[in-house]
Chemotaxis protein (Photobacterium atrarenae), 300 residues
Amino acid sequence: MIKNATNQSQGMLLFQLTQRQSFAIGTLKVKEIVPYSRLTAIPQAHPTVLGAATLRGDTLPVIDMAKAVGYPPLSKEELKNCYIIVTDCRRMLVGFLVRGIDKITACNWHEIEAPPSSLGSNVFVTGVMRVENKLVQLLDVELLLSKVFPDKPDNLHPVLTDVQREVLRPLKILLVDDSAVARRQLSQALDSISIPYFIASNGQDALNMLRHAASSGNPFDILVSDIEMPGLDGYELAFEVQNSHDLNHAYIILHTSLSSEISVSQAHQVGAHEALTKFEANELIHAMLRGAEKISEEVA
């Protein structure tokens, strides 16, 4: 168990989708950055998928990121100056074609703010930060990918027995994620099997809910939280819960879109009982069932 989970920071890759606006994604999602190379057409692909690239033996779809989030698409003349950001997210390798790469900068999650209302309906922005007095928008890559590659119904709706359902139904469950698409997926998974739950869109609200429930004598049994969140992230939330006598009753399941052993290792260090790469509904439900079993053993 690590002694301090505060000041969690990570690298942010800054890049350009337009000439004026900078965007960012966490470097933990990035495998490599390569110059544009000729792509192979993919029949019946999503309109934003320009084709497939083969890199180091892997074939991956390449998305025009500007077009995918609502900006003018890349022209054929621009392609030779563009870059492909290869990401490992949602258990798949995907390339994002961008107009330019700016730099990598360190960022503390506490420095990321909620998107201002002036951004309007740009739902792909999950937060904003300032780098050298310039506003940088943090993209919700999960939401973008869910639009281009929708989840299969089997991934969204878990299957469990009536006995298993009755094991979970009495438990007080809290779901935490800053991504609207992830919250919707989590909600749909539990709604489909009639399991009640509470939901929070950030770590600080979740911690407040956990403390209020504990002080009211009705603490949460299971906490399911995203790792990457602005403000109080999943690591810090898990650390706070495990190091509080009033809260550490909860079985903690952290989940991440990163296919990274590092994320899983850090999750266990801060006291999480489990760490999952999201999103697969059956995996999540079976993690909850393991939590229910542990809680039952402690009560007995």
The CA atoms of residues 235 and 266 lie 8 Å apart. The first strand starts at residue 9 and ends at 16. Residues 1-7 have pLDDT under 50 and may be disordered.
